[in-house]
Amino acid sequence: MARKNAKAPHPQVAVGLEAGPFHERIAALNSQYGWMDWMGFASPSVLDNVEFEYFAIRNQSTLFDISPMCKYAIEGADAEAVVNRLVTRDIRKLKPGRVAYVIWCDEDGNVIDDGTVFRLAEDRFRLCCQEPQLAWLEDVAWGFDATIRDVSREMAALALQGPTSAALLRALAVKEMEQLKPFDFAAVRIGRKVVELSRTGFTGDLGYELWMKPQDAVAVWDDLVGAGGQQGLRVIGYQAVEMARIEAGFLLPKTDFLSSRTALRTDRPSTPFELGLERMIAFDKPHFNGRRALLRLAGSTPRRRLVQMEVGKDKPAANALVYHRKKKEVGMVTSALWSPTCKQNIAYAWLDAPYGETESGDLWVEIYLQKEIRWQRRMERCRIAEKPFFVHQRRSATPPGDY
Amino acid sequence: MKRGERVIVIGAGHNGLIAAGLLAKRGLKPLVLEARGHVGGMMGDPDFRLSTMPFAVWPQVLRALGIDVAFEPMTTLVPTPQGVVGISTEQVVGAEDGQAAAYRALMSRLERQASALSGLLLKPPPNLASSGFGDLLGLAGTGLKLRGLGKTELRDLLRIVLSNIHDLIEDEIGDGPLAAALAVDATLGSAMGPRSPGTVLTLLLRMARNRGMRVMPKGGIDILTGKLENAVMACGGEIRTNAPVERILVEGDRVTGVQLAGGEIVPSAAVLSSAAPATTLLDLLGPQHLDAEFVRRCRKTASTGMVARIDFDLKDAPRFSGGTAPSGKDRIVIAESAAAVEAAFNAAKYGELPKQPVMEAHYDDRNRRLSVSAQFIPCSLKGGWKEESRRALQRLVERELARVFPGFGSLAAAARLMTAQDMAAAYRVPGGHWHHGELRIDQLLMLRPFDGAAHYAMPVEGLYLCGAGAHPGGDISGAPGFNGAQALLAGRRR
Question: Mind telling me how many Å the CA of A139 is from chain B's nearest CA?
Fold first, then answer.
């Protein structure tokens, strides 16, 4: 628990940003006054020190407010048909009590957004994603017996992530947690409040997400924080989450790819094939949005491909261009990080075809370094990696380990 | 498709019959399924025709079907307090000299411009995304024809093509009965007034064939319908009336047939639908087979009908105040001026009955029946269509007719009325629109019926559009039916 006895900082009101359900608690801990705009809410970027916060994700447990996520309830007799029509995966295979990572495409087969679908019951789903989708969902549901409701403000949510997160829930006597496999969820009791607990997250580590009514938010927070001392629970900001998500191999809209709904230039959107998500397309299910375009795309070579790369030495290749044989420009880096856990210099990059497909050798990134006001250019060799950098068996072990 | 294979054609309107006739000629076995009890669609019901005065079917279409119909041009009569103005292919009589000359000059210019555009109509609209050599050649042909207009007229065409007919009339001939006739021709069947942008283009497209003149098939309208019907049957096609299609069946993203309202399933590898695009795609096929954007564009297509049809059975021929009676070869346009046409549209725009509806009428002397199309009668009337509002509309029309035909009230024996709302239900056309969708610039050519659906072949393999909703649009021309059938024969895919 961070800075429990520190003098409370001045109350902070971020100009133009709204206070979320946990704002009071987070503001009291935000000694850096670091706020960012997440869907109009004041979301902490860093509370005291990004390194401490990052290491808490990998070694202790962490709390991060994910209430600003967009959340939609899709309900009714045709709810399954609507969700199945929306996403590329076959949602008929998703059982109640399970969560699925999904992407959805426009009629040209370009990705609109990614997110998670919770199946609450046979005829009730919840979609969580980064970008507002109400108008799109209403278009998809037109003509079907299903209602779409924006429930973003009817729910507060917390990400409880890190190896000791299960131990913390155990300390709170949350028994249902023992049987939860990754992508399971169940209703549990934290103190006197009922919350929905899902074994999901954005860090690639053992972790959970808790979904609750906004009016229960502070009580649940206090219970978690009150019990978390033994497990080294730390409240964190987005910068640390960003480091963990790059290691874990998760894509970030607006950084690694652009939604086809917001792109202006026709070549900016990306297809699932370009994003390396073709395994998420179920061509054998009934018609879904973009199916015909995706079938056509499946038969052709993608224009470019988003790849994970290992870069030489230790300087992150942020915003770097990628070269073939140090000469020909063949791509660009979208996210980059020196991974403290993997002890690797890692990056995501777009490579124009055929690089990243048939041509994958002799690739270089151009890194700019500033050393005491002087800029240096460094060509560093890079290599395409096939798997996410951070993979740990504790993420999926059931029952979860007691660290 | 192989010879002898069955193709289902939905709807036995003239477009459906023409499409079926062409397919039959090429050795396929078309089965035309018509929901109503008669063939001929909007012009086919002998008891109450929605379309009483067709435009000329393209001669190329009739030639392709191997049928011969003689069309007699009709004379447009515009009654005014000073007498009746007559407009025929040869002359304008009864109008002020200066205006008549200006009218003729404008019309011959528009005719040249319309004929230069006509090359775009009897073939699929240009495909801008992926043009083949044939597409480009066709476009180049139209380009050459446009250049052939000469610098002045081409520049003039580009100046007026997107503008409104009211401005053009004001510039060229001044308001009056001739202007009224032009304004009616530019807005007929539309939810657009003479001042609405794009009405010049609507007029030009109408004039692209037979100079926009109405025609009457020699021997009556049923002769045309009968010959189209025969063209289908003669080559082994089949027509079933009272056979409403309920669902288009799909398996593995391919059409497999249709299901009729009674539950009967008729298998077929291809379905051509002359029903309205929204009816075909959203009701019969269903949005579950289509992408959300496609469905959105389909349901947002402008299709608001503003024509009400009234038939009066008369005891005797109606007579103008001068004493003459219209003949079966006359088309009567009742509108004082272009400004009056705009005023009528203004009321309808806000869901109200106009004080003075614009009317087009035809008197069938054999059956002593006066058929009136009252324009700018909103489909969704404020407060809804009730018995009371229907009577109010009938009284309004009778009052206006009595102004033109003195003593009309004592002549009228019985009246039948169909509002656009009735047409919507009876012919399964959204908004009861004559043309299965507004004929305006954003719904023409490669945007007809809507973006992404312009080339007859629909996303589900084997489904084609061949009705007025498809390019080049409504009126009795036969071009959508012809083009739709050609698309299927050429094996076009979306």
Answer: 6
Total number of domains constituting chain A: 3
pLDDT computed for residue B330 by the predictor: 95
A289 touches chain B (CB under 8 A): yes
**A81 interface with B at CB cutoff 8 Å:** yes
Q: Do B292 and A107 touch (CB under 8 A)?
A: yes
Is the same domain home to A113 and A180?
no
| Residue A270 in tokens | 């990306």
Max mean pLDDT among B112-126, B133-147, B284-298, B437-451 falls in B284-298
Chain B residues in contact with A287 (beta carbon < 8 A): 253, 288-290
**Mutate: best of B288, B294, B463, partner A, most A CBs <10 A:** B288
For A261, name the nearest residue in chain B, comparing CA atoms only: B293
- For residue A107, CA distances in Å to A128, A291, A296, B283 come to 21, 8, 12, 21
Please tell me whether residue A304 adopts helix, strand or coil conformation. strand
Residues A244, A143 share a domain: no
CB contact (8 A) between residue B296 and residue A142: yes
Of A179, A272, A168, A164, nearest to A223 by C-alpha is A168
Closest chain A C-alpha to B191 CA, distance in angstroms: 26
The domain containing residue A239 runs over which residues?
A: 23-67+155-248
Contact flag A287-B289 (C-beta cutoff 8 Å): yes
pLDDT surpasses 50 at B246: yes
| Domain finish residue from A210, A232, A248 | A248
Collapse the DSSP code of B131 into the 3-class scheme (helix H, G, I; strand E, B; otherwise coil) and give the result.
coil
ipTM of the complex: 0.92
Kindly tell me the burial class for residue B263, based on how many C-beta atoms sit within 10 Å of its own C-beta (0-12, 13-18, 19 or more): exposed
Q: How far is CA B259 from the centre of its chain?
A: 28
What's the gap in Å between the CA of B287 and the closest CA on chain A?
7
Residue A376 lies in a domain: yes
Q: pLDDT tens digits for A55-110?
A: 999 999 999 999 999 999 999 999 999 999 999 999 999 999 999 999 999 999 99
A142 in contact with chain B, both atoms CB, cutoff 8 A = yes
Read off the pLDDT of residues A356-367 as tens digits, 9 standing for 90 and up.
888 888 999 999
Whether residue B292 and residue A81 make contact (CB cut-off 8 A), yes or no, is no
Question: A284 burial class (0-12, 13-18, 19+ CB within 10 angstroms)?
Answer: exposed
**What CATH number is associated with residue A377?**
2.40.30.110
Q: Would residue A2 count as lying in a domain?
A: no
If you average pLDDT over every residue of chain A, what do you get? 94
Same domain, A37 and A166: yes
Same domain, A208 and A345: no
Same domain (yes/no): A86, A54: no
Q: Which CATH architecture has domain B6-71+217-302+437-489?
A: 3-Layer(bba) Sandwich (3.50)
What is the percent of chain A with per-residue pLDDT over 70, rounded to a whole number?
97
Q: Where are the domains of chain B?
A: 6-71+217-302+437-489, 90-215, 307-427
Question: Are the CB atoms for B39 and B229 separated by under 8 Å?
Answer: yes
A195, A22 Cβ separation under 8 angstroms: no
Contacts of A290 in chain B (CB under 8 A): 291
**Interior angle at CA A13, CA A11 and CA A15, nearest 5:** 160
